[in-house]
Specification:
Layout lengths: L2 H7 L19 H11 L4 H19 L9 H13 L5 H20 L49 E3 L5 E3 L2
Helix pairs in contact: 2-3, 2-5, 3-4, 3-5
Length: 171
């Protein structure tokens, strides 16, 4: 392929930049996230959960920051604070990070941010805790085993013959 075709297809030119209104981007993360929650198309139960995670954790740490001031270092600080908080498990911290990332992605789509600071190479999501999985042998009393008093099928849904000859269910 000729050099001219490669330059035309991919282009050595930088990506076209969109105009960011500086006055509109002065809105705080908390104000924008509250607006985003009202217009985001998720179910009411999920909306309550997302709002709670943002209110209890993200707003406390980054809620007062204007959108136009976000840099990857602020997101790294959020991730670090979530990982060091003993009340926040690794999976829960990842959910909070996902909510913050979704809000900032919407801000990019709305033209308030040039790019999502969560997408920077130096930003990583919170680490999930490592759980050790231990397989239990049947009858050992472990978390995955069947108690010895019950049959392997759980004793439900099977028909047994009663001494009188009539069928009766066990479940």
């Amino acid at each position: 392929m000729s050099r001219r075709v490669v330059q035309w297809r991919g282009g050595p030119w930088p990506k076209a930049r969109r105009y960011i209104d500086p006055r509109a981007a002065r809105i705080t993360f908390k104000s924008y996230a509250e607006k985003w929650l009202k217009t985001h198309g998720i179910g009411p139960a999920s909306q309550v959960v997302v709002e709670q995670r943002l209110r209890l954790h993200a707003f406390r740490l980054i809620g007062s920051r204007p959108l136009d001031s976000f840099r990857p270092e602020h997101i790294r600080g959020l991730v670090s604070a979530l990982e060091n908080d003993p009340a926040v498990s690794g999976g829960y911290a990842r959910n909070i990070y996902g909510d913050v990332r979704a809000v900032l992605s919407a801000a990019v789509e709305d033209g308030l941010l040039p790019r999502n600071p969560c997408s920077a190479k130096s930003v990583r999501p919170p680490a999930a805790e490592q759980r050790r999985v231990v397989a239990a042998h049947p009858g050992s009393g472990g978390p995955c085993s069947t108690p010895p008093a019950l049959p392997a099928h759980g004793g439900r849904g099977r028909r047994v013959r009663a001494p009188s000859g009539r069928d009766r269910g066990t479940g």
